[in-house]
């Protein structure tokens, strides 16, 4: 087994996750099997209870783990199917150490940061290795920035780990910033030098330095970084700002042959030069589309770039399949409540309402769903977006005045969305929702079944507490609502649709977590195709 550790320096948000995902892509194209994990130095056990303002999107895995959004990049860029072993937080580390101390696992010893905490971190790498015996390379991204006190224990654990498994089996990659001082017209290498110096103080010498830069890295600066950071000049790699899409990142890093540098550093001799023809074709379709559509995404965290990250990427990927650029029109659901959907949304080719929680902005989302249904605009509702569609239909097609979800109105006379039975009495907020992949039955003859190419069973990822109330099933069906999928185990409503509409579909699950380049999720692909077919000014 070989190991790659990716650290970051100077500033946060440098793109370590994209760098790790891109390296994973390139290694897979060399015929290697990889898996990628993220170490997050915050004390939350997982991001499940964190606000999107703090963390952005919570990315859910098949096994129900609520993880960092970088794991979305890992799964989209590679063939990895990740598990809870692929994300470790300081909260998990300390929780495990305390549990072991309470059980007496340390045999009465004084529990210390070293070795007990660092041993727990190293154990996660070993556990991941044991769970993936066919994997050739494990990539580990360390969140935060070198020099932060929160991440020091993780770096110390990696230093120890590299000695234990043999330095020849480990490649340290440091991602750093090369700022351009425009007044001087110079790229400055000093922050990178200081960042590497801090890493070396801990006892880690990077093998490869990835330099985030707006411009090409000239040989003088490569030479300077190599000399002061004690690496070979060829191992100083430029990671340029991409012009169009994040999916250019593997191609950019390939310019400096980072995959060859990595395999040479690790002593891997039997991996051929990668063919990136399919990836290049995908990127070309993104950069040179034949068509455009405008899709309104209606949410309450719309100003946050990362709050609906997987939604945006899934739309982009689906668009490429149809040679179409998807322009995202971000609409604040609270603003709709003030100004109305006609003013805020206007003429768009599709409307998507993503998942969410709470009653803030909920009326705006209901108005958006009504606007889509009445104006025959393709509509796709995900999780809360499906629930919103049900509420709107109950109110306006079934005359159930005041119909609502009990999450937003416990006193509603018509609770068409209600708390799942198993959720009643749950006190802890973290990791207690319906989470992870669940099997669902698809009903033949529905649009959903058509989009899934006639499949009768599907597996999709969930993250919710509330569900379609079966007490209202017959009434809503009589009014024209079609149930196209239910869960195999409990019979919970998983998908709804309106057959007389150009495209009106809601899914209780989160299909955005299973979209990949050149393999879009069928629901997103169908939605974008419907938006293209119904494009304003074109025949339906």
Offer a quick outline of the entry:
With 540 residues, this protein is an alpha/beta fold. 36% of the residues lie in helices and 22% in strands.
- How many extended strands? 23
- State Rg: 25 Å
Strand content: 15-25%
CATH superfamily of the largest domain: P-loop containing nucleotide triphosphate hydrolases
Question: Which sheet architecture does the biggest sheet show?
Answer: 9 strands, mixed
Mean pLDDT: 93
Distance between the termini: 55 Å
Supply the number of helical segments.
19
Approximately how much helix is present in the residues?
A: 25-40%
Spatial strand arrangement across the major sheet: 13-12-14-15-23-22-21-18-19
- CATH topology category name of the largest domain: Rossmann fold
Provide structural commentary:
This protein has 540 residues and is α/β, with parallel strands linked by helices. The chain is built from 19 helices and 23 strands. 36% of the residues lie in helices and 22% in strands. The strands form five sheets. It has a nine-stranded mixed β-sheet, sandwiched between helices. The N and C termini lie far apart (55 Å). It folds into two domains: 2-281, Rossmann fold, CATH 3.40.50.300; 290-533, Class I glutamine amidotransferase (GATase) domain (Rossmann fold). The radius of gyration is 25 Å and the shape is globular.
Topology:
Blueprint: E1 2-8, H1 16-29, E2 34-40, H2 52-55, E3 59-60, E4 66-67, H3 70-77, E5 87-89, H4 90-103, H5 113-131, E6 137-142, H6 152-165, E7 170-177, E8 180-181, E9 186-187, H7 190-202, E10 208-213, H8 219-229, E11 236-240, H9 249-255, H10 258-266, H11 277-287, E12 291-299, H12 309-321, E13 324-332, H13 333-339, H14 341-344, E14 350-353, H15 362-374, E15 379-382, H16 384-396, E16 404-405, E17 415-419, E18 434-442, H17 447-451, E19 457-464, E20 466-468, H18 473-478, E21 482-487, E22 493-497, E23 504-507, H19 522-533
Parallel strand pairs: 1-6, 1-7, 2-5, 2-6, 7-10, 10-11, 12-13, 12-14, 14-15, 15-23, 16-17
Antiparallel strand pairs: 3-4, 8-9, 17-20, 18-19, 18-21, 21-22, 22-23
Helix pairs in contact: 1-3, 1-9, 4-5, 5-6, 11-12, 12-19, 13-15, 15-16
């Amino acid at each position: 087994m070989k190991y790659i550790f990716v650290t970051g320096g100077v500033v946060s948000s440098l793109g370590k996750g994209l760098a790790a995902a891109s390296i994973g892509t390139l290694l897979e194209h060399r015929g290697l099997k990889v898996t990628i994990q993220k170490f997050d130095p915050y004390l939350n056990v997982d991001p499940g209870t964190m606000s999107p303002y703090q963390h952005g999107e919570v990315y859910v895995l098949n096994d129900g783990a609520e993880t960092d959004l970088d794991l979305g990049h890992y799964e989209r860029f590679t063939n990895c199917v990740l598990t809870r072993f692929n994300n470790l937080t300081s909260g998990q580390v300390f929780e495990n150490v305390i549990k072991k101390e309470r059980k007496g696992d340390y045999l009465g010893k004084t529990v210390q940061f070293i070795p007990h905490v660092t041993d727990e971190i190293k154990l996660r790498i070993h556990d991941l290795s044991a769970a993936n015996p066919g994997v050739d390379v494990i990539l580990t991204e360390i969140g935060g920035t070198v020099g932060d006190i929160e991440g020091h224990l993780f770096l110390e654990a990696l230093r120890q780990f590299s000695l234990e498994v043999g330095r020849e089996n480990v490649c340290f990659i440091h991602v750093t910033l090369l700022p351009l001082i425009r007044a001087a017209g110079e790229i400055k290498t000093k922050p990178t030098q200081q960042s590497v110096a801090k890493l070396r103080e801990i006892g880690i010498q990077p093998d490869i330095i990835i330099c985030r830069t707006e411009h090409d890295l000239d040989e003088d600066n490569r030479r300077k970084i190599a000399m002061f950071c004690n690496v070979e000049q060829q191992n100083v790699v430029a990671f340029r700002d991409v012009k169009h899409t994040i999916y250019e990142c593997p191609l950019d890093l390939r310019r400096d042959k980072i995959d060859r540098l990595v395999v040479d550093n690790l002593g891997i001799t039997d991996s051929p030069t990668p063919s990136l023809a399919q990836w290049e074709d995908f990127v070309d379709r993104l950069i040179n589309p034949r068509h455009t559509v405008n899709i309104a995404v209606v949410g309450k965290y719309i100003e946050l770039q990362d709050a609906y990250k997987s939604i945006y990427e899934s739309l982009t990927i689906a668009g490429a399949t149809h040679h179409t650029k998807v322009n995202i029109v971000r609409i604040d659901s609270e603003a709709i409540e003030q100004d109305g959907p006609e003013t805020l949304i206007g003429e768009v080719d599709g409307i998507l309402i993503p998942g969410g929680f709470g009653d803030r902005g909920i009326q705006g989302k209901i108005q958006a769903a009504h606007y889509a249904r009445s104006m025959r605009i393709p509509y796709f509702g995900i999780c809360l977006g499906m629930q919103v569609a049900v509420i709107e239909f109950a109110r306006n097609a079934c005359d159930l005045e005041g119909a609502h979800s009990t999450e937003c109105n416990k006193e509603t006379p018509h609770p068409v969305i209600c708390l799942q039975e198993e959720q009643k009495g749950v006190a802890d907020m973290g990791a207690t929702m319906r989470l992870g992949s669940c099997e669902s039955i698809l009903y033949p003859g529905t649009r959903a079944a058509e989009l899934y190419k006639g499949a009768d069973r599907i597996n999709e990822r969930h993250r919710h507490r509330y569900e379609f109330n079966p007490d209202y099933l017959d009434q809503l069906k009589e009014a024209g609502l079609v149930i196209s999928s239910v869960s195999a185990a409990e019979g919970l409503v998983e998908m709804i649709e309106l057959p007389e509409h150009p495209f009106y579909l809601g899914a209780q699950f989160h299909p955005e977590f299973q979209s990949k380049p050149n393999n879009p999720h069928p629901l997103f692909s169908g939605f974008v195709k419907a938006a293209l077919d119904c494009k304003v000014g074109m025949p339906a």
